[in-house]
Write a structure and sequence with these properties.
This protein is of the alpha/beta class and about 280 residues long. It has two domains: about 5-70, Chemotaxis receptor methyltransferase CheR, N-terminal domain (Chemotaxis Receptor Methyltransferase Cher, domain 1, Orthogonal Bundle), CATH 1.10.155; about 80-280, Vaccinia Virus protein VP39 (Rossmann fold, 3-Layer(aba) Sandwich). It has twelve helices and ten strands. The protein has helices at about 5-15, 25-40, 45-55, 60-70, 80-95, 115-125, 145-150, 155-160, 165-170, 185, 220-235, 270-280, and strands at about 100-105, 135-140, 155, 175, 180, 190-195, 205-210, 235-245, 255-260, 265-270. It has a seven-stranded mixed β-sheet. It has a three-stranded antiparallel β-sheet with strand order 3-5-4. The longest helix is centred in the first third of the chain and has 17 residues, at about 80-95. Bound molecules: S-adenosylmethionine. S-adenosylmethionine binds near residues 72, 146 and 215. S-adenosylmethionine (SAM) binds near residues 18, 214 and 215.
């Protein structure tokens, strides 16, 4: 692959998925795209780049984007965000939404589904607290392939051993051969669909809780700023965004502000809670 071809791939990936690759990622690109070339009957990366330049093969374009995404995830990843959800955000939602009795949650880069299904299990465990409430969990990802896997609710032994308490494994999964099938009750609690965070997502409506974890790390600064701005606009009054452990809004966006009492939790700068936080910081 020539320098020119590599630059074309980097520009293509940044424009289409937000993935910002440094010049040192040449080896990563080569190793992830070699199997794509094989599957699509291409001689090598030079031919792949010339196909992308002609821009007439959407299946190839998607395959390139999907091959370059990192889908690492596991049940109850980092634990603290899920405890925050159960102990802080859910009680807040129950208090604020008592009128409509409707709660909307969005996992904005849900990969193979462990994050939204962890939330669905927590909600199921909350049981009678939510009786008479409608709780919607929407889970999206740029990759149609991982969305399809997530929908199946089928996980390997390795996947269920990562982060999932044995009690919940036994309660919500059934063993099918070497794999584990999630129960219909939990699967049906989550709606999956492909969605690219670079595109306008206002049509999804407003949410009380948005999990957008471990995806912004792959974007450059202007892209992070733009996505954070639009996430803030997708919050219901009193809503909150949770980011990954290595992600922050600081230095990137004024639209969201950190909640000083709860690390990793962000509220809209225009919200009542943010105004309250400013007053208590000043006084
Ligand atoms: C590392 S996983 C994070 C999964 C989960 N949120 C977690 O923290 O465990 C990042 C996910 O972001 C998705 N992704 C990358 N670029 C995206 C984009 N532009 N729009 C939506 N999803 C994207 C990838 O396909 C991948 O599944």
């Amino acid at each position: 692959m020539t320098e020119h071809e590599f630059d074309h791939l980097r520009a293509f990936l940044k424009a289409r998925s937000g993935l910002a690759l440094g010049p040192e990622k040449r080896y990563l690109v080569e190793s992830r795209l070699a199997p794509v070339c094989q599957r699509h009957g291409l001689q090598g990366l030079a031919e792949l780049v010339s196909c992308l330049r002609r821009a007439g093969d959407p299946a190839l374009e998607s395959a390139v984007i999907e091959a370059m995404t990192t889908n690492e995830t596991f049940f109850f990843r980092d634990r603290a965000p899920f405890e925050l959800f159960r102990d802080v955000l859910l009680p807040r939602c129950l208090a604020r939404r008592d009128g409509s009795r409707r709660i909307r949650i969005w996992c904005a880069a849900a990969s193979t589904g462990q994050e939204p299904y962890s939330l669905a299990m927590l909600l199921h465990e909350a049981g009678p607290l939510l009786s008479g409430w409608s709780v919607e969990i929407l889970a999206t990802d740029i990759s149609a392939e991982v969305v399809e896997r997530a929908r199946s609710g089928l996980y390997t032994q390795f996947e269920v051993q990562r982060g999932l308490p044995v009690r919940l494994l036994l309660k919500y999964f059934t063993q099918v051969g070497k794999n584990w099938q999630l129960s219909p009750a939990i699967r049906s609690a989550v709606k999956f669909r492909p969605l690219n965070l670079l595109r306008n997502f206002a049509e999804l409506g407003a949410f009380d809780v948005i999990f957008c974890r471990n995806v912004l790390i792959y974007f450059d600064t202007p892209t992070k700023t733009e996505v954070l701005r639009r996430l803030a606009r997708s919050l219901n009054p009193g809503g909150a965004v949770l980011l990954g452990a290595a992600e922050t809004v600081i230095g990137l966006s004024d639209a969201l502000v950190p909640d000083p009492e709860h690390r990793g939790l962000y509220v809209a700068a225009s919200s009542e809670r943010a105004r309250g936080l400013r007053v208590s910081a000043a006084g």
